[in-house]
Amino acid sequence: MSPAAVTADRPPATTSSNERAALIVIFAGVCAALHVGKLPPAIPALQAALGLSLVQAGFLLSLVQLAGMCAGVAFGVLADGLGLRRSLMLGLGVLALASAAGGFATRAGGLMVLRALEGFGFLLVVLPAPGLVRQLVPAQRLARAMGLWGAYMPLATALALLLGPLLIERLGWQVWWWALAALSAGMLLVVRRQVPVPAVFERLTVTSPWTSRLRQTLSAPGPWLLALSFACYSGQWLSVIGFLPTIYSQAGVTAAMTGLLTALAAAANIIGNVGSGRLLHRGVPAPRLLAIGFVTMALCATIAYAGWGQPAALRYAAVLLFSAVGGVIPGTLFALVVRAAPSESTLSSTVGWMQQWSALGQFAGPPLVAWLASRSGGWQSTWWVTGGSALLGLWLSRLITQRFVARP
Prior knowledge:
Elements: H1 3-9, H2 16-37, H3 43-50, H4 54-63, H5 66-82, H6 84-102, H7 108-126, H8 129-136, H9 142-150, H10 152-171, H11 173-194, H12 199-207, H13 210-219, H14 221-242, H15 244-251, H16 258-281, H17 286-305, H18 312-326, H19 328-340, H20 347-376, H21 383-405
Helix pairs in contact: 2-6, 2-7, 2-8, 2-10, 2-11, 4-7, 5-6, 5-7, 5-20, 6-7, 6-11, 8-9, 9-16, 9-19, 10-11, 10-16, 14-17, 14-18, 14-19, 14-20, 14-21, 15-18, 16-18, 16-19, 17-18, 17-19, 17-21
């Protein structure tokens, strides 16, 4: 069945119930991302309870990205083959079981294995979600919906940084793990009852050979352009947000304020994600939004990092602007997925390829920034990394215009 025929057979998604279902899918993504963000506030408690070393804590932070970094596109193909709704429910189930088991862990090794398993569950939720939202939301509201979807990760990060320390301090890290397991299980039931089965698309994805979908995805220019752009964004964002404690210490900020300020910086990213959807809906060209995002990130990272004696308040304001305006990039890239994917049956694999490169950017960016800081004796030169990423992102934005955005 051709994509055109599938589109023609697509049931209308104009009812309020379908739009509520799309919001449920977005909240399912937030639920999955909470498992990514639950670890940072728990590290001190894990070190005390399990004798976790700093190196082991670092591995726990990165293991959840292992699946995305090594096999994001493969899991996207798997999600397309399983069916979008089934994949999302399976991922929520994996997250619930892994997190529940993690609460009983008594050794770091067992927690690491379960952390990697959570990474697989995370992918099974977030990769099919944009395609599922695409099926549920009317075309005229799709840009706004994708902007909301792009905010799932910063929203979850902010919630984890705000709620995690409170729950861990009062009830322990195990309850934090079990609470998120219960949340995932509850979300699974909500998805099963409230999100309709898109029968036409499910039949298409099940009957399409996985080798054909993988070849289609990796041989088309659109998925590559979006994936590389996402890597340029994610590497920068984590490099700046991840080293905020250094900025706090230089500014003399107390440790009690660290969680709040980091959560605010992460939450600021939601502004750009949601705003990108509204701007795209009003007709602002996607490459222009990408260019604004990359230029702003480069300038603000320079202010935050370069050792020119700026006041601490100005540097933190630059971080907030960096995160807020930079948020237009993921929101715009997710909105472009439906145009960049070679066909309807490769939406999840295209998102998977984006996720894979996003994970690579997050894996490579912070160590590169840290290495440059150590070699130069401070943070004053690390803006070269973020600036270089921004320049590459600008070039990719131009290619996006030439290759498929500007096509008739």
